[in-house]
Amino acid sequence: MRPLFHPALEDIKPEAILYALSDPERVAIYAKLAGASGGGTCSALADLGDRVIPKSSLSNHFKVLRESGLIRSERQGVEMRNQTRCTELDERFPGLIRAILTAYGQLPGQQKADCQRYGDHSKSKTSS
């Protein structure tokens, strides 16, 4: 299998983040992932309440989120585990992710919490 591309923190561009989060489904996926304890698998995040995202669309959404630097994905057997990179992103672009999620109404309880309380699951600051 091909290795997954994860941009280094210094290579992440704000326009890539804005593009990735310009789609309401990707915002909902990212918010759900950020709120999940320990990250989540692609299939576990397919159900967005009133609709289920088809696998082909879901794969593309995760690719866009990963290549923009918003998430880190790791293969574990037949599953793909995803985690946010919120702490890293908040260091590089303070308040950007929180502002976007708040604008979409996706920040749980509209809290003014930092990424750690919002569900940060990033492990390292190096790219794979």
Provide a descriptive summary of the structure in words:
- The radius of gyration is 13 Å and the shape is globular.
- It is 40% helix and 11% strand.
- The model is unreliable at 109-114 and 116-128 (pLDDT under 50).
- It is built from six helices and three strands.
- 27% of the residues are buried.
- A hairpin with a 2-residue loop joins strand 2 and strand 3 (79-84).
- Strands 1-3-2 form a three-stranded antiparallel sheet.
- It has helices at residues 14-20, 24-35, 55-67, 86-92, 96-103, 115-118; strands spanning 40-41, 71-76, 79-84.
- It is α+β, with helices and mostly antiparallel strands.
Sheet having the most strands = 3 strands, antiparallel
What structural class is derived from the secondary structure elements? alpha+beta
Distance between the termini: 15 Å
Number of helices: 6
What integer value in Å does the Rg equal?
13 Å
Described by the principal axes of the CA atoms, the overall outline is globular
H-E order: HHEHEEHHH
Q: Would you tell me the overall average pLDDT? A: 81
- Main sheet: strand order: 1-3-2
Task: Please mark out the parts with pLDDT under 50 across 5 or more consecutive residues, or reply none.
Answer: 109-114, 116-128
Q: Helical proportion?
A: 25-40%
Helices and strands, with pairings:
Layout lengths: L13 H7 L3 H12 L4 E2 L13 H13 L3 E6 L2 E6 L1 H7 L3 H8 L11 H4 L10
Write out key terms for the chains shown.
128 residues, 6 helices, alpha+beta, globular, 40% helix
